[in-house]
Write a structure and sequence with these properties.
The chain is α+β, with helices and mostly antiparallel strands and about 425 residues long. The protein is about 30% helix and about 25% strand. The N and C termini lie far apart (about 50 Å). It comes from Blautia intestinihominis.
Length: about 425
């Protein structure tokens, strides 16, 4: 179903409600009075809440059933949570393995289940897909989707389609005192727009407060992958593109190959390659002269087909101290964009015939624009037998560079 069709249908429904309410004020030439006006006032108030779309009232029976179900599901996973390594930080984060173990438990309920881990495949996804297919045909129905969060808690998301509008009843639970389930919130919201894409993404925008009720834009957009990625695409996504992303470096959002590598932001790219190699974030030592040349160049050359001389020529390099400039990404050198938050997702892998692999990468943006492919690129990678790899080039398809903001180099380049 096209988004425009759903919006038009909802507007017609609203118009009928308004005509009904306003029509009650006159019967022939006689105005409604007394109890009639009180009834109309209540109907008008209810209509205003419904039109607003968020913070909608929830039937107490439905609310309690949702809360009780959420707690029961949490208790089914309690043993796994208690045995999990939760570290020493006050902000508990469980591993992807633990989340997957919890997913296996909930999978037995024969309902859709996902985790908050990147590239999580949805268990029982066909149930969710069937609900969306029916909604596209204006058939009423509902579905409950569970999402396991990084703190080991869950969200219970119940989507309901009434033939015109879709609603979301969301309940979030965390682990409280003595590892007992604790409800964080219950919310009931109308979905303003939604779509199910051919690539298998369910994108929706919740009704949210708007100006002048709020001074800044509130983002009610979400994207959930329904159709699972292949195991190979998931593994390569995690390994080759997830830690790069589209923020702070331009390896995935610019055209380049071995014959044209001048435009890459090497000073910005360094920290992302460092994390890929060592599994931890780069922490600048505090040396005011920058990153030592040999350390910088060896890491860049490990991942790119480039020489030390070329790096010195194209990166911001201090020849006097033999160091490369580095600055932490912040408000003084980076202007946030919706595109920058996109998730790179490998959706296809093919052999280039030259000993290289071509990865088809979509930039999935779940903020405001809700797009499952803001840009699509072909990233050429050379995989080695020792499991190392080099990026050999990137090509943006379909003039995609016109769809994204101009890249902002972290450190101003010297002429």
């Amino acid at each position: 179903m096209e988004i425009i069709d759903m919006i038009t249908k909802r507007k017609l429904k609203k118009m009928m409600s308004v005509l009904f309410i306003s029509g009650c004020f006159f019967i022939g030439n006689t105005k409604c009075k007394g109890a009639d006006l009180e009834y109309i006032s209540q109907e008008t108030a209810n209509y205003a809440v419904q039109e607003r779309g968020y913070d909608l009232p929830v039937d107490e029976v439905v609310k309690e059933e949702a809360i009780e179900d959420c707690k029961n599901v949490m208790n089914q996973m309690k043993v796994i949570y208690q045995k999990a390594d939760k570290g020493t930080s006050s902000n508990i984060v469980v591993s992807e393995t633990v989340m997957e173990e919890m997913q296996e438990v909930l999978k037995e309920k024969n309902v859709p289940v996902i985790t908050s881990a990147p590239y999580s495949n949805m268990a029982n996804y066909s149930k969710m897909e069937e609900f969306l297919f029916r909604a596209e045909q204006d058939l009423t129905g509902d579905i409950v989707l569970y999402r396991i969060n990084r703190d080991g808690g869950i969200e219970r998301l119940k989507f309901n389609y009434d033939g015109t509008d879709m609603y979301l009843l969301a309940v979030k639970a965390v682990w409280g005192m003595n590892d007992n389930p604790s409800i964080v919130y219950v919310s009931y919201t109308r979905i303003e727009e939604w779509k199910y894409t051919e690539k298998g993404w369910f994108g929706y925008t919740l009704c949210v407060p708007k100006y002048p009720e709020v001074s800044e834009a509130v983002d009610g957009s979400s994207m959930i992958r329904i159709k699972p990625l292949s195991d190979e695409c998931r593994e390569v996504s995690k390994r080759c593109v997830y830690l790069l992303g589209y923020q702070g470096n331009n390896l995935l959002c610019s055209d380049w190959d071995r014959s044209d590598m001048e435009g890459l932001d090497y000073n910005g790219l360094y920290e992302y390659l460092y994390r890929m190699k060592y599994g931890e974030r780069y922490e600048f030592s505090g040396n005011s002269s920058g990153i030592p040349a040999e350390e910088f160049e060896n890491l860049i050359m490990e991942f790119l087909p480039i020489t030390a001389d070329q790096i010195k020529k194209w990166a911001v390099f201090d020849s006097e101290h033999q160091t490369y400039d580095w600055e932490r990404l912040g408000c003084l050198n980076y202007s946030p964009t919706y595109f920058g938050t996109s998730l790179p997702e490998v959706v296809e892998i093919r052999d280039s015939g030259e000993g290289n692999s071509v990865l088809v990468v979509d930039a999935v943006c779940d903020t405001f624009i809700c797009n499952d492919a803001v840009i699509t690129s072909e990233l050429t990678v050379k995989f080695n037998d020792d499991k190392s790899f080099k990026y050999m080039g990137n090509k943006i398809l379909n003039n995609g560079t016109k769809e994204v903001p101009k890249y902002q180099y972290r450190i101003k380049r010297k002429n």
